[in-house]
Each structure stands twice: as C-alpha cells, then as structure tokens.
Give the backbone structure.
Amino acid sequence: MKLYSSKLAPSPLKVLIFLSEKNIKDVEIINLNLGELEHKSVKYKAIAPNSRVPALQLDDGTIILETTAICRYLESIYPEPNMFGNNPMEIASIEMWYSRVTYELATPLAHGFRHTHPHMSKMEDQNQDFGLSQRKLGIKALETFNEIISSKEFIACDRFSYADIQLAVNLNFLVRLNRLELKDYKNLNDYVTQVFARPSFSV
C-alpha cells in the first residue's frame, strides 16, 4: 500500500498517527510538497481528482480518499489496538465525539483559516466575511470544548481513540492558524499537551 501524505497538513497527519498507534509498518509513505502545489499536479489528480491528501493506494490500484475512510479501512485489516470502539457504547461515543469535533469545532476554524489567511489566497477563492463569521463560531466552540474536556482525560471514552486524534490534531493546527492562542483555553491546552506526548504523535 502507498499513502500519499504531508506532515504539513492535519488530515494526512491523522493517518500517520493512526498508523503509528497501530504499529502498521507495510505502508509506503509518499510525501507531497503542498507549498509547491504538488497536490494540484496532473499526476496527483489522476490519483485524487479532488487534489486532497491523504490518499491510500491499495496494492491492486484501488484508491481510498478521505482520512476517516482510510483509517476505517486500516482498522478493518489491523483490528488491534482498537481505535473505533470495542462495544456498541464505545462505537457510538467515538462516532458522536468525532462528529461533534468535526462539525462544531474543526469546520468553522478551517473555514476561518482558509478564507482569511493571506497564505491561503493562492489555494482558495477567499470570502473574508464568511471566514470571519466562521472564526467567531470556532471561538465559541473552543469555549464550549474547553468546558467539556475539563472533566475528561479523553474526549470519547475512558481510553485513547480516533476521536482524540481528530480533536488534538485539529486544535494543534487550526487554533494557531486562526491567529488564536491555545493557552487561552487552559483545559484544551493541557489536553493537547498530554495527547501530543504520546509516541505516535512524534511521526
């Protein structure tokens, strides 16, 4: 298998962390230079028509796009250690918190960055007003999740799961890219520090 990736973007980093957590060694990593728009090349578009990373190419040539789809596929063939839930309640909880993190927190922060940051002007058809309004929603979500995590070690259940990869990586990337300070949200800052101390996050 081949994973088209980049350590400079949160989505492929999640897959790299997932591979490390599960100690999967037989995936060839091909890093793309996003700054030089390698993901927009004709060659890569033949693999991923949406020009996004990551992309997992199976040995038979089949392509799997989207971070969570890739991780679910890998979980099905490398079931241990489990990252998506061992029982109905864990499965539901991990799915719920993954979705809440994605749509309540990560999505508005991502739009805030993409539509307001000067660095993204060559990659996005920017709408400043939309970006600013999304950033406001992201800030409200940060305040909400700062309260939620205050009584938890992990976001979804009593152990590390895929939902923690989603939350920690997005916080580490998207807060600073919106020119905000994670340290202003003490509980989230402590959580990210704890999660990023895991060996898998040093990929």
